[in-house]
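cache lookup: miss for this entity combination. No prior model stored, computing from scratch. Input as submitted by user K.M.:
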Amino acid sequence: MRIDKHPILNFPKKEPIPFIFEGQEVYGVEGDTIASALHALGITTLSYSIKKGRPRGFYCAIGNCASCNMMVNGIPNVRTCITPLVAGMIVERQTDKGVIR
Amino acid sequence: MKHHELIIIGGGPSGLCAAKMAAEAGVKVLIVDRSPQLGGQLTKQTHKFFGSKAQYAKTRGFDIAKILIDQVIHHPNVTILQEATVVGLYPDKVVTVYQHDTYTRYQADKVIVATGASEKFLAFENNDLPGIYGAGAVQTLMNLYGVLPGQDIIMVGSGNIGLIVSYQLLQAGVHVKGIVEAAPTIGGYKVHASKIRRLGVPIFTSTTVQRAVGSTHLEAVELVKLDAKWQPLPGTEQIIPIDALCISVGLSPMHQLLSMVNAKTKYINELGGFVPIIDDHHQTTQEGIFACGDAVGIEEASSAMMEGYLTGLYVAEHLGKSHPESHALKEKYEHELDMLRNGPFGIKTKIGLEKLRKDDIHA
């Protein structure tokens, strides 16, 4: 959910940015990070833990905790909380440590 | 390998202030910051600051960030790398930077580590469920990106951050069901706590989170009362349905890069955890590597700025360059820092710094 009214801050309508999440076309807005765009869509599970497959969301939002790591354009362990959203990005949930090819 | 006289790691309040002073003294500065925006945690702080004019009192955090950024961004001596993470720091002052899928090595004459702090976590059952966030993360999500973290939330921790973020959640239209505090008393300023209570948010003292409930996302949280020995009181459990839990139980200084170069650190509870041992010029035990801001002890952003200005001045001197107003500025910022630490929450820092200085050779 996006905030539309706020006593201090202004959140003007921004240009939509299309991207692919788990094979589906979805939209964020200009200025989003990958994680903020997913949260606005109600998607809070960003990955699954390696051993037990437990759902993981983000925790710190400043690129520190690794809880938001996802696969972006085939690159694993991208810190989605500090990575700006770019049109056409392919974003996938990670279930393993990730392999760099 | 690219060369810079001074590399500042971290473009938050402390790093930006250090950059301003060093650049004005004629030092070529490179600021490396991993976020999409400069200003560190100030960019999401919508509240007005306390303190004096030198610390931009009565100005909102994000406006302070703009002031600090404007001070350096057009300075000819300052180069800025954004969305760039320092992944290696070496004793010979080589800094490796990861930016846009590329690694680059830089050689610096001096380095300032102004990496700030990270959010502490809390141990309880299911604490890894999506919907459980650090207070800073919640602030980022709603104040920077305009996205709500949930509809019904509980805040854990009644320090100033917990109280302020609770208020900001209310401003954003989130239902704050309560603030949980393990200690018997509220941690933050009374003025903040009263403001929150007047808006109908209960503060549960001597209470903690026993476990989180949910399968794919947080659905509820179980709270329990604590006795005088901080042990859970059986029979006092209550389950509260929420879709977000915000954890604000303190911050830890980010000393990791300093540990990488074997700068000596010491565990000081009052300063938030492991902190580097520094001399009067904020130089660590590793020659030429300095540190300032929350990375050397958790305080307010106001203190981080004053420390940054001072460290920038000190480092310029170590490089044989002196700010034209060095003497007057040092006096001013040292005085400001003293004033801040004489405030109601400064005592903790003072005790911590005392411990850091005492027998520091054995640490």
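stored under new cache key. Chain B touches chain A at residues 34-36, 41, 46, 60, 83, 85, 101, 118-119, 121, 128-134, 136-138, 140-149, 151, 171-173, 216-217, 254 (CB under 8 Å).
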